[in-house]
Amino acid sequence: MAWIDIITPDKATGLLKSLYDAAVNRAGHVAHVVRLMSINPPVMRSSMALYIDIMHKPSALSRAQREMIATVVSRANDCFY
């Protein structure tokens, strides 16, 4: 099993703290997948911007459909969603 160093929300500063705060505002917590990117906040910022564009911006798919696709793919990958 791989172990990845992360910066926990209570130790975050600067850009990372603002990204964690945004995650809490958006979802009520900082998801594990977000914490995995904590050692490189600029990459986290880009990744979260892509996620927001995919899940929240106008699309031919409804938000519910997009969430269902994400859930099914996570289950198929045996990944906690």
Structure keywords:
globular
Structural write-up:
The chain is mainly alpha-helical and 81 residues long. It has one domain (9-76). It is built from four helices and no strands. It has helices spanning 14-27, 32-35, 41-56, 63-76. The longest helix is centred in the middle third of the chain and has 16 residues, at 41-56. The protein is globular, with a radius of gyration of 14 Å. The two termini are 19 Å apart.
Describe how the helices and strands are arranged.
Blueprint: H1 14-27, H2 32-35, H3 41-56, H4 63-76
**Order of helix and strand elements from N to C terminus:** HHHH
| Inertia-based shape | globular
Give Rg in angstroms.
14 Å
N-to-C terminal Cα separation, in Å?
19 Å
Give the tally of structural domains: 1
What is the gist of this entry?
The chain has one domain (9-76). The protein contains four helices and no strands. It has helices at residues 14-27, 32-35, 41-56, 63-76.
